[in-house]
Amino acid sequence: MRKSPNQPHRTFHPVSAPDFLPPDQLRELQLQRLTFIVRRAYEHVGLFRKRMDERNLTPDDVQSLEDITQLPFAVKTDLRDTYPFGLFASPMKDIVRVHASTGTTGKPIVVAYTKEDIEVWTNVMTRSFAACGLHSGDIIQNAYGYGLFTGGLGAHYGGEALGATVIPISGGNTERQLTVMKDFGATAICCTPSYFLHIIERAPAMGIKIKELPLRVGVFGAEPWTETMRRRIEAESGIKAYDIYGLSEIVGPGVAMECQCQAGPHIFEDWFYPEIIDSVTGKPCADGQEGELVLTTLGKAAMPMIRYRTRDITALTSEPCACGRTLRRIKRIARRSDDMMIIRGVNVYPSQIETALLKIEGTLPHYQIILTREMGLDEIEVQVEVTRELFGDTVGALEELQHKLSASVETSLGLRAKVRLVQPQSIQRSEGKAKRVIDQRKM
Amino acid sequence: MKLKQLSLFLENKPGALSRPMRILAAAGFNILTLSIGDAHQFGILRLILRDWAKAKKLLEKEGFVVKVTDMVAVEVADEPGGLAEILDVLEAAGVNVEFMYACTEKRESKALMVFRFDDPDNALRVLRRHGIHAAGSAGLLKQWQG
């Protein structure tokens, strides 16, 4: 079977109609939904009511979209502090689904959906798949984890609503992923970009050439990744790799998704109202200016989120996209404000290290950053898994590689970093999400 | 006489060597000879065995990175100067030895060495020109490797 070329840019699926609303109609719709959701949050969620009362605000103070900037922010700790059900705005009899994050630090967070909320989520996931050229007849291998994690079921419902065939394979078991991909003729795959890299690496040992399979689209998200990584994935697998954005606190995957122009994810603004703020002062940023993404759910009855600080650093652009969508786009999110490391006084993001590693030909690496402090000095070690392409059978060749990698990281960060080559699959992965930083410094 | 060598990347930590050994042992592979190249933080395990293609597949399935390299097997007289004589020939022809190690196979007072060259075919031509052949136990190994 050969790959069919991807559909041209102008494919149109009826479900995508709201993607193309004239901006004034979109703003009007947003305002209608915003006033409704603010009132709902105020009337049904104690925390939101308390914070608005403290500022002498009532739902009537929201008369225009600009008025949103008066409202208080919500943050991740609000969800932890009210664990498990403290932010629910609906009685349990109206809630049909809950999801939860595994919570690597402290308590997990729980999110809830009414039947209508699930419909909204399904709608944005369907539009996400349609935006990257998928349609009925496509076979979507859904390798996001099914369970408490929002990825699996979110993509599942969207794929089915699109009319595509969904393979609910869930995450893990890479050999089975490859066997199914080949035997079922999957045309699309959903997973984290780091997990897809892992699949690419395992294919040759199973005698599978991904380039020769019908697979043509990858919907990748749930962790930050870089443009360099996208190009690498596309070159290695012959598919088109699209960036999907979402977070459980807002809905799960499907908050924003790239169209076939691959020019940054379009936010499904009719359901999620975006703002960009200066993460230090909290003041709004201008169009195109980089800052922290803040989202308000415009249609989530069970658990409205007003001005939720995502900690994701990006910029919002209203420049028209060649696809014709009027939805604004965010810049690819390669970093989160809480991913920032301060090493010897220098701000460092994992994405800088990723870009530096990818500059070295042949690397398709899983990597992990280990921070330690020795005699009061921060030390950074980057562990890089040795891939088939990287491995030479002489010690000299490997030492040269190690040297090239550390030189590239040093150039990019302006800091000396140790690079340690480690065995393939020795770096732990959880939920298919790569854990990039281990900070062992004792402050 | 060319032989196939498998090389594996290993981290320099306890247990790194025993894992591939156990995997090969459990599948009934007998290792003819091996060598370890070591650096500060990692090592390279080099193996010569029968059914190398099957062993490679198995090790890859277990998550190892495995590379196949052509090695040149040469019989060396088991007497003082036996190896030096061969190295002289190579040196005179400007052939560089990347690394070498000995096989446990030994016959008729001849030791069997395996060499890694940049260009194994050129090295073989040089050796043949000087009447150095690898037969005997090397031939036996070749048969084993198929």
What are the main properties of this structure?
heterodimer; A: 443 residues; alpha/beta; Rossmann fold; GMP Synthetase, Chain A, domain 3; 2 domains; 7-stranded mixed beta sheet; 5-stranded antiparallel beta sheet; 10 helices; 22 strands; B: 146 residues; alpha+beta; VC0802-like; Alpha-Beta Plaits; 6-stranded antiparallel beta sheet; 6 strands; globular
Would you kindly provide a written description of the structure presented here, covering whatever features stand out?
- The complex is a heterodimer of chains A (443) and B (146).
- Chain A is of the alpha/beta class.
- Chain A is 28% helix and 24% strand.
- Chain A folds into two domains: 14-23 and 111-336, ANL, N-terminal domain (Rossmann fold), CATH 3.40.50; 340-439, ANL, C-terminal domain (GMP Synthetase, Chain A, domain 3, 2-Layer Sandwich), CATH 3.30.300.
- The longest helix of chain A is centred in the N-terminal third of the chain and has 22 residues, at 23-44.
- Chain B is an alpha+beta fold and 146 residues long.
- In chain B, strand 5 and strand 6 (110-117) form a beta hairpin.
- In chain B, strands 2-3-1-4-6-5 form a six-stranded antiparallel sheet, with helices on both faces.
- Chain B is globular and about 45 Å long.
- Chain B is built from five helices and six strands, in the order βαββαβαββαα.
At CATH level 3, the topology of the largest domain in chain A is Rossmann fold
**Mean of residue pLDDT of chain A?**
89
Structural classification of chain A = alpha/beta
Report the end-to-end length of chain A measured between terminal Cα atoms: 56 Å
The ordered string of helix (H) and strand (E) elements of chain B is: EHEEHEHEEHH
